[in-house]
């Protein structure tokens, strides 16, 4: 387990071992790379970040991941692989399940989507982007990117 303090001062536990979870995941985060670039969404308040969000009632983690990516970016994904989970020890602790996925199709982004759109960033561009969301700047995100790079070679 990898532990760190996030930008909000909360302790975060990041694990690449599948379950059992400290807390049942109710949120998802999805890392998708396509043609050497990472799929990011442009959140209206937080800035550039990986797509993700809350699991809706009756929805599996995988269904939530597919839906959230589409709602935030207009990108259809498949071949989801569970990758990690992390627990944020905030006033009300919560857990996010992290997945990787493959791009199936990219629709035209229209304003009805939840964000300002999508952007595709190389790892270097991602590391140096001036408008990253707070959670994209923490040690956990750097660790996840290192691990996904290693696992992609194995997959």
UniProtKB/TrEMBL annotation:
GO terms for molecular function: hydrolase activity. Residues 6-145 form the Nudix hydrolase domain. Gene3D superfamilies: Nucleoside Triphosphate Pyrophosphohydrolase (3.90.79.10). Keywords: Hydrolase. It comes from the Bacteria. Belongs to the Nudix hydrolase family. This is NUDIX domain-containing protein. The lineage of its organism: Bacteria, Bacillati, Bacillota, Bacilli, Bacillales.
């Amino acid at each position: 387990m990898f532990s760190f303090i996030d930008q909000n001062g909360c302790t975060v536990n990041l694990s690449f071992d599948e379950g059992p979870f400290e807390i049942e995941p109710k949120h998802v985060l999805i890392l998708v790379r396509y043609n050497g670039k990472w799929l990011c969404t442009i959140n209206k308040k937080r800035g550039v970040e990986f797509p993700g969000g809350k699991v809706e009632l009756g929805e599996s983690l995988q269904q939530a991941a597919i839906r959230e990516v589409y709602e935030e970016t207009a990108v259809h994904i498949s071949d989801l692989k569970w990758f990690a989970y992390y627990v944020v020890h905030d006033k009300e602790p919560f857990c996010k399940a992290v997945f990787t996925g493959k791009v199936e199709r990219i629709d035209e982004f229209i304003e009805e989507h939840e964000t300002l759109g999508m952007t595709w960033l190389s790892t270097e561009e991602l590391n140096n982007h001036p408008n990253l969301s707070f959670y994209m700047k923490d040690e956990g995100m750097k660790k996840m990117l290192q691990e996904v790079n290693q696992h992609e070679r194995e997959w």
